[in-house]
Amino acid sequence: MDFNDTPEQAKFRKKCNKWLENNAEYKDKSSKGDSFANKDLVQEAKIWQKKKYDAGWAMLHWPKEFGGIGATPIERIIWANEESKFDVPRGIFEIGLGMCGPVMMQYASEEQKERYLPPMAEGKEIWCQLFSEPSAGSDVAGLRSKAVQDGDKWIINGQKVWTSGAHFSDYGILVVRHDPNLEKHKGLTFFFVDMKSKGIEVKPIKQITGGSSFNEVYFTDVEIPDSQRLGEIGDGWKVAITTLMNERLAVGDAGGPDVEDAFKWAKTQDNLGKPLLSDKAARESIADWYCETNGLKNTKLRTMSALSKGDTPGPEASITKIVSANKLQDIGNFGMDSMDMAGMLKTNNQEIKGFQNAWLGAPGMRIAGGTDEILRNIIAERVLGLPQDPRADKGLAYKDIPSGNS
Amino acid sequence: MNLDFSDDQKFLKEEARKFLEKEDVLSRSRSVLESNNKVDEELWKKIVDLGWTGIRIPEEYNGLGLGHLELCVVAEELGRFLAPVPFSSSVYLFTETIINYANEDIKQNILPKLVSGEIVGTLAVTEELIAPTKDNISLSCVDGIINGKKIAVPDAEVATHVIVVARTNNGTSLQLVDLSLEGINVEHQENIDESRGHFSINFDNVQSETIGDDINGWDLFESTINQAAVLFSYEQIGGSQAALDMAINYAQERYAFGRPIGSFQAIKHKLADMYIALTLAKSNCYYAAWALSTSSSDLPAASATARVSSTKAFQLCSKENIQTHGGNGFTWEYDCHMFYRRSKLLSLNIGSLSNWKEKLVTSLEQSNTN
Prior knowledge:
The structure holds two protein chains of two kinds. Chain A is an alpha+beta fold. Chain A has helices spanning 7-23, 35-38, 41-55, 73-83, 94-107, 110-122, 236-250, 259-268, 280-308, 320-337, 350-365, 372-383, and strands spanning 127-130, 146-150, 153-164, 171-177, 188-194, 200-204, 214-225, 270-271, 274-275. Chain A has twelve helices and nine strands. In chain A, a hairpin with a 2-residue loop joins strand 2 (146-150) and strand 3 (153-164). Chain B is of the alpha+beta class. Chain B folds into three domains: 7-116, Orthogonal Bundle (Butyryl-Coa Dehydrogenase, subunit A, domain 1); 121-215, Butyryl-CoA Dehydrogenase, subunit A, domain 2, CATH 2.40.110; 218-369, Butyryl-CoA Dehydrogenase, subunit A, domain 3, CATH 1.20.140.10. In chain B, the strands form three sheets. In chain B, strands 1-4-5-8 form a four-stranded mixed beta sheet. In chain B, strands 2-3-7-6 form a four-stranded antiparallel beta sheet, with no helix packed on it. Classes of the chains: A alpha+beta, B alpha+beta.
């Protein structure tokens, strides 16, 4: 056991780092601080993405013709490790590059790949994912947006929801129902769509945090050429599953305060005349979070070790989001509780803001990209091999499935 | 980046597992639980013959001269089958103390006999129904003569030697005692997991040898425990995995309301939570194994992290395994209670969960000030 790079990995890491040092500032040395939050994040992100693209770092595991360098999985991780040390804008391209890219790579025609993948990697065109609907969340295959074929095009009507970044996206991947007379999973077809198409209306959703990172997207008689269908008619679910698998890799650790922040806070925060860190309950909580944080960190190292050897990693990484999102919620709560009555007040103190934002934001983390409950089902069924739930909608035509009032 | 065991270590693990499976060790554990004989001597002899007691003992003392990582993989398999043998007492606690702190004379006397099985060792610290500390040890040692009583000593009946934490005129010390001497009285103390026998030992003017000095014995004990915690954690994740596997099997086979109970989300989510706890614990064990094998300065935090998460994992997996089994899980006949018992024994034997959490935070405070 060791934590060293192989000579080739060390060389690659050095190369990443050298380029990053020349083009960005280390987080702890950066004078920008919170500046990304105030400026036009999308514009900043596009500039950074373009810089990376020109130097070959944008989608390094992609083949050369689409703007990558054909990097190995471990090289991707090394790049991500190094990039995360720098103060650069993130969070704009994750869905496009992490979910839409792989689907296009697998299902689009050669001409389409040549047309769409390089601008996606370059950051010139931003992509979003249009799956969830008001009545189809965890049961996303229960979606009802309609596609009707009309010659060599399709007419789309319906509504999508929770679409991150739809308001600044150029294209989207879309799954819709082409035949309600078929079973739920069999009546779906998959497309990509120009978000500037006539009949698409994007409305931001205000979240409990006050921010709006996702949207409702309405489709009224939107036309999509049949050439933009990905996979066969009726293969929509199969294609969507490819994306959802990638989503689980893309949605991982919750950002925000972690155990080090709780520890640091507890050292100085007063608790009935003594430092909070001297309180037994606080100490036990910190110990629990430390075990979780390090358990996830070491799980990641095990995954990396497998990739580093060219092996397929085990299913361990499936625990990441469920553990980190719940921990985030608890740590936010801990920080606020520690101030007693004053914990309710908004202040300019960055640490307090951090705890309050974590407390408000964590409920979203526990839902996005698979709820805690869906993730537990996935672990139970795919990792532990337990049988699926019997389904009330099994064998029924979609139109005959009970759907309640919503 | 290589946070994984080597192919040789994985091979040893595989061999250990095959051996313990073939020996039907879980049934042997049940037999010990149900009998007055508190160790499976036949199994123990086979384990000695395989050389496992000498894994970490250098070749010059007839051992295998391997490292802690080899010991970790064996510990995980012993934990999986709830082995009813004095391996942890004699190897993680006694042998490691001798290797790390004893003088050359003692090493030459003792280590080859640990390899051959002539000597079986254990460690004695607790005296009252409270957690032992540097300040509350009262068993006395004056000029090597010890007087006093220890309780909850594992494997004392089968052990030939014991290392005792003692109070001296200058502080504390570790005293090596030959259990065949006059003035020693060993009595069985019934405990919650009788597949692992525990005993009281009374010492009345018994001659002993000091390991280390007569000032800092407690610190040597603490450091032994910090190392042993990693190995006990491996036993705990082995046991956790076995309990989880049992629960998965039962949830697939048992039907209720016309379907396997494993198709109910209430059961699925329970088992998923067991898997999550076990995965966190296992990953922390890997890191602690690395810290142990390299004598990293991060060992105190790493071993406490492994200990806390493995204790939580085994307690969760063993109790929810019973729950998954319903009424059957509460019967003596099913093996569920054996995992429940062992999980509790292992959660207490080198210090309770809350005291290990305390140790963890203390180590964070220390590494933070340094």
